[in-house]
Write a structure and sequence with these properties.
Elements (H helix, E strand, L loop, with lengths): L1 E6 L3 H8 L7 E7 L3 H11 L4 E2 L2 H8 L3 E4 L13 H10 L4 E4 L7 H13 L3 E4 L7 H11 L6 E8 L3 H15 L5 E9 L13 E8 L4 E6 L18 E6 L3 E5 L2 E6 L2 E6 L2 H21 L9 H20 L3 E2 L8 H9 L1
Parallel strand pairs: 1-2, 1-4, 2-3, 4-5, 5-6, 7-10
Antiparallel strand pairs: 7-11, 8-9, 8-15, 9-10, 11-12, 12-13, 13-14
Amino acid sequence: MYRSAFLGCGPRARAHARAYRHVERGEIVAICDLNEQLLNSFGDEFGIDRRYTDLERMLERERPDLLHIVTAPTLRESGERIRHSLMRVASDHGVPAAIVEKPVAVDGDDWRQLMELEATTKTKFCVNTQLNFHPRNLELKRDVAAGRIGGVRFIDASARSTPIDQGPHILQLVSSYLDNAQPVRVFGQVADGGPLAELSPSTRHGTAAITFAGGVRASVTFGTEAAPRISDSEVQYYHKRIAVFGTRGFIHWTMGGWERGTPEGFESGAHSYAEQDILGQAGLTEAVLDWLDDDAKPHPTNLAQSLTECNLLLGIYHSALIHAPVALPFDPPAGLIGALKERLG
């Protein structure tokens, strides 16, 4: 039985914790949060007695196999970016594996720090983009891999939240349907800099045309003004979707349902996102334990792959600033977020 610890006890951490009802080889043994009210309410809800307000003390005493880092990427009080520093603490303490909440990086500077960490760390980091593990997506991906829609030619994906809020989910989902093919070129545009002042700084809207190795192209769109609605819900993150078009058919997944067109005919149905998501979260966690068992089973959202998708997102920003396509991977200039603030206001 693998021993898990949590850094961060807010609402998102509760979704991580609830998934342990479906995790057969892991248990939560300790939690940490500077906010003692959150810490104690979380501990009481999930029956966890070992509670800390100091991360290093928790790691030294508990020596977890898996650490969930479920924090915002930026401190509210100071604006300091803390994702890399917390991951460095986990790495320096020899934590075998860690699940990091998205976004893993929000600017070129922290992307470079994490690239350096990924090249040297022994900790198996992955990013919590769990849509890859939703049972319905796993089913549809098996259809695509088996050639039921023929050869993949084009992908259309979208979310009505900001690029940095739901972009990591959407870009990882696109990658997963292409067996993590590498993006080689992006041409993007963004609008409305209001959310650039938030803890996860982002433009409000974004869109891009992406070319992947092998020639498959994808279109991604983010934001309330451009991305399509898939239900009557006013909750922005309820509108994630992806459609994969092949030479013989297509598949379409949304948060509330699915469609599949093949030479055999057309099928569709509905599903509960809440039910799918808790199983997806459990599947993401179990995949980390598989990786701990066997180095030959890297996690689908491992840090190297997630940084590739982060580089793609930063490429969208840079393309919008220079009004030209960007070859990938690229070295993001320092201060991309600052440049967007200056340009967009």
